[in-house]
Amino acid sequence: MIVRAFQVLRRLAALAGCLLLLTASAAAQTSDPDPPASPPRLRRWVDVQHLQLGSRFRWVETSSGRLTSSTVQWQPQVRARFLADADGRLTVHIGAFGGRNFIGGWDNTAAGLGEENHDFNVKQLFVAGRLNGGVEVQAGSLYFDRGENTELISYDNDAYLDGERITLRRAQGRVSELAVTAGYFGDFTKPNVFARMN
């Protein structure tokens, strides 16, 4: 069953690649580019910053030869913000991801070992306000501010903490950004923001 699921995923990926090549080829052959379309009206209120649906095959064997994981997993990720004003000075941010705890962002499918789960939690929900002079204030369930690090050597992109942050951004000078965060880092088994906002 696992091999069959893997073969189906591989064929779907190959088909998607072929469609992408055909679309790119057809677009390259047109001589007149289409005029730019005006953004939809919804864009004034909603800014979808990240939308992703990932899948992977996870296989783990211990040094003694015991198979502990052999499953196809999936992970939905959505990051968006709602704009209260046209300039985006006052926004409400939301981040919804898969996973049932702080360190787990992937959900098991029915293909393979392990319990099937389809968790999708709102992990971040906060209000942000941009003030004059490059100052931004945030409060609620925040993303981690990783600075120049990536999720490979720092916290995952779906990590969460509850608190406040003030950030100063400058276009010139030796320091381009300075941020101070105060809050609570915990509730590792409660990824849903509505279960831990107390």
What does this structure look like?
The chain has 198 residues and is α+β, with helices and mostly antiparallel strands. It is built from two helices and eight strands. The chain has helices at residues 2-29, 193-196, and strands at residues 46-61, 67-83, 90-98, 107-112, 120-130, 135-142, 161-169, 177-184. Strands 1, 2, 3, 4, 5, 6, 7 and 8 form an eight-stranded antiparallel beta sheet that branches. Strand 5 and strand 6 (135-142) form a beta hairpin. The protein starts with a helix and ends with a helix.
Total beta strands? 8
How would a crystallographer describe the biggest sheet? Answer: 8 strands, antiparallel
Helix content bin: 10-25%
End-to-end distance: 44 Å
Amount of beta strand? 35-45%
Unreliable parts: 17-22
Which structural class fits the helix and strand makeup?
alpha+beta
Rg, Cα atoms, Å: 21 Å
State the helix count: 2
Order of helices and strands: HEEEEEEEEH
- Mean of residue pLDDT? 83
**Tertiary shape:** globular
Keywords:
alpha+beta; 8-stranded antiparallel sheet; 2 helices; 42% strand
What does the secondary structure layout of this molecule look like, with pairings?
Layout: H1 2-29, E1 46-61, E2 67-83, E3 90-98, E4 107-112, E5 120-130, E6 135-142, E7 161-169, E8 177-184, H2 193-196
Antiparallel strand pairs: 1-2, 2-3, 2-4, 3-5, 5-6, 6-7, 7-8
In short, what is this structure?
The chain is of the alpha+beta class. It has helices at 2-29, 193-196, and strands spanning 46-61, 67-83, 90-98, 107-112, 120-130, 135-142, 161-169, 177-184.
